[in-house]
Amino acid sequence: MVFLATGYQMVGVLIAITLVMVVVMVLLNHFLSPKRTGAIKESTYESGVPVVGSARRRFNVKFYIVAMIFLLFDVEVVILWPWATLFHQATTQPEQFSKTAMTVQDSPVWAMVQQGAVGKEFLLITLAIFIGVLLIGFIYEWKRGVFRWS
Amino acid sequence: MNWSQYINALLPEMVMMLAGCMCLFFSFAAGRPDRPRRWAPPFALLATAGVLVLSIFWRNQPVNDPAFVEFSGVLVTSLSHYLRLLTLTIGLVLILVNWYQGEADEQGEYFALLLLAMSGVMLLSVANDLILLFFAIELISVPTYVLVAISRTDVRAQEAAGKYFFLGAMAAALTAYGLSLLYGAAGTTLMSGDPHALRELLATGQVSTTPMLLGILLVVGGLCFKIAAVPFHAYVADVYQGASAPLVGVLAFLPKLGGFAALVQILGLYSWGHWPLPLQWALWGIAALTMTAGNVLALMQTSVKRILAYSSIAHSGYMLIGLLVGPGADQSAFDDGLSAMFFYIAVYGVMNLGAFAVLSALTSGGNEPDELQQLNGLSKSQPALALAMAICCFSLMGLPPTAGMLGKVYIFSSAFSAGSASGWGYGLIVLAVIGVLNSAIGAAYYLRIVGQCYLETSSSTTAAVAPTRGAVRLAVLVCACSMLVWFVCPHDLLREANRATASIASPTISQSSHTAKPPIYNNKTFPTQ
After folding, report:
1. Which of A22, B91, B174, B293 lies at a 20 to 30 A Cα distance from A143?
2. Distance between CA atoms of B526 and A30, rounded to whole angstroms?
């Protein structure tokens, strides 16, 4: 049998232990716990102000669109942040920057760093493409009237 | 290597995506409702033709510098050139068939999504990295979900889009899980072309075999959804019936082409002909079941679109035979299963598109015809369209004088000639026999369509030709003619398909001289047999 695992027995042991633990916990709880019940104890736990209606109602679709756009620009900033840090290093301390990039040996950028192809120009162009794509999307949303709340 | 070379390698894909983005803006130039300006289809056609010309020029400039492969996860092979040209050429016909789709102020989005799905197939053809591969598969899939939803203002289209999306998301999850297992097994996402890539690590026994096999099986499962193979075929009939006929031409071609291209890349991680037995027989079973299920289920349908949907499942089964045969020993037309498969998928794309284009050119009470009765006596009222339908059906059936017959001959003969020689025993020959029997079953329902057109008398329910559908009729003409022309002279297409698989039989840069990079995982040992 060529496809049987060796070296994965520990995974099997882990799964077995997990299953046993779950069963033991539930059974112990069942046998050991005191069984004193009452109307208040049986009711569902709730906190906060009393609800005014069901939360499962229709929302205006605009909320979802705004949420999606927010997410888009939020993620954009998340990507910009490490970029800005690296770009600062690449402009002010280029030697330090190549050293940093060189230490990431399994990074695909490594071969390019070796050839000196990764520098501030590289960072600038990649970011320009990224922002450009987002800009096209932004103009599209704008013209589609997504930002007009009426 | 300098900047221009990095950009050159991906220029067709970049231009295609840019064209897709620009296409969005035609929705704002739609004009007044009473005088709509439909500029998106001509723009999409021009852009596709432009990228096609670009790709033809680019095919002689392979960028196979190892540093580039490593940097970008992009490997441009002869297969990439073939897939690019095939996508773009058939893409031109796809755009013609879809010319009148969508309201004027939605056409921008419609054609933008179409162009993006096409660029997804192109990106898949050059992907040499698991992450890029997954991204490209999703770039094909996600636009098609939206296209199904906006193709018709019909509750059935919404239902079809919902089913397609949720099942597609499940398939994507399977694929992603499989890819993560591959990464876990090898510690790299690079697929080939480097001493530390998956294929090379696997060849030298540095990869843990069980997660590798499990991962590949999961990825194959996810891709079975894209190519509509058993057991992930159930969505096909509902989705094809819900979507509009021109769009079904897209759905039956682009995801399928992408799925097969990805299968070739993923299964190519093992050296061809030396797959683990479970994988080999799993694919054998999938191929046999897909052919049989597609053909038998098609027999029970009364809707033309559902018949063609199940027939597209059956055709996936035939193509899987070619995939199982793999590249032939001496690259001749009759024993190279992969080039037979890539020949077949080109022929299949055109003949299937032709059948759906005929449906798109017809109308029945404001809708496209769906029931078989609506084709009654079409040969009297619309002789040209009926003839085109008959040619496409004969081709799907595999009868001469159409290219579909050659496709089947190449696929089955490759299985017969490889069957006795390889380690399969008679497995491949049995599979080819199942395939031939299935072609005979398939004849029954294709002949029903042709029979409705030619033998029945027309009635009040017979579909009439839709007014002002010039582009669709042109596409019908192109599809029907190319079926006849490819039967007479298939050499060019066959040579292209042969050249495409040459890089699979003998990978160009797998023995790379690029050794400057120290081995990353040399301090780890993997449990291997």
Report:
1. B91
2. 44
- What's the mean pLDDT in B160-167? 93
Q: Tell me: the pLDDT tens digits for A18-65?
A: 999 999 999 999 999 888 888 888 888 878 887 788 878 887 878 888
Chain centroid, CA A53 distance in Å: 32
Contacts of B485 (CB under 8 A, 6+ apart): B403
Cβ B278–A3 below 8 Å, yes or no? yes
Q: Which of B324, B320, B346, B342 is nearest to B333 (CA)?
A: B342
Number of independent structural domains in chain B: 1
User: pTM value?
Assistant: 0.84
- Supply the DSSP symbol for A84: H
**What percent of chain B clears pLDDT 90, i.e. is strictly above it?**
52
Asked whether residue B414 is domain-assigned, the answer is yes
In a domain, A105, yes or no: yes
CA angle B198, B227, B146 (to 5 degrees): 105
- B7 interfaces chain A, CB cutoff of 8 Å: no
Q: How far apart are CA A119 and CA A90, in angstroms?
A: 6
Yes or no: say if B216 and B267 are a contact pair by the CB < 8 Å rule.
yes
Q: Chain-wide mean pLDDT for chain B?
A: 85
Residues 6+ apart with CB under 8 A from B102: B109, B110, B150, B151
Q: Could you tell me the residue range of the domain that residue A74 belongs to?
A: 61-143
Sequence letter at residue B186: A
Q: Are B249 and B357 in contact (CB under 8 A)?
A: yes
Alpha-helix residue ranges (DSSP H) falling in B187-276: 198-203, 209-226, 235-242, 245-251, 254-267
Strand partners, B464: B363
Q: Is B422's pLDDT higher than 70? A: no
Question: B527 in contact with A at a CB cutoff of 8 Å?
Answer: yes
Cis ω before B41 (30° cut-off from 0): no
Count of alpha carbons within 13 angstroms of residue B351, beta-carbon side: 32
Residue at B289 is within a domain = yes
CB–CB of A133 and B21 under 8 A? yes
Looking at residue B433, its pLDDT comes to 93
Q: List own/partner pairs for B279-284 with CB under 8 A and 24 or more apart.
A: B279/B213, B279/B216, B279/B217, B279/B220, B280/B324, B280/B424, B281/B427, B282/B217, B282/B220, B283/B220, B283/B320, B283/B323, B283/B324, B284/B324, B284/B427, B284/B431
In a domain, A56, yes or no: no
Which residues, 6 or more positions from A54, have their beta carbon under 8 angstroms from its beta carbon? none
Nearest to A112 among B28, B67, B73 (CB): B67
Domain-embedded: residue B16 = no
Q: Judged by CB atoms within 8 Å, which residues 267-286 of B form the interface with A? A: 276-278
Interface check A133 vs B, CB under 8 A: yes
Look-up of token digits 């209606």 = A53
